[in-house]
Write a structure and sequence with these properties.
With about 80 residues, the protein is α+β, with helices and mostly antiparallel strands. The chain has one domain. A two-stranded antiparallel sheet has the order 1-2. β1 and β2 form a beta hairpin. α1 packs antiparallel against α2.
Length: about 80
Amino acid sequence: MPGPPPRRRVPTWEAALMALASLVLGAVAATLLVVGHHPWDGDVIEVFTPYHGLHRGDVLAVLPAVASLVLAAWCWRRRG
């Protein structure tokens, strides 16, 4: 039984562009989760100033950030 087909390698510039795009989109998504007022904000975990703090919902901002890092690493590994 033949093995899996070889992975397609992409040009370095294309891998770099896709990695950069994934990092930018992840940063935008994380920022939108942190700066917005959402129904899932939850209680304040840590108070920084009288008007600023870390809410339970802000932890969700870690998910798109980590996903973008994983996607960027995957794109970069596929470069030619």
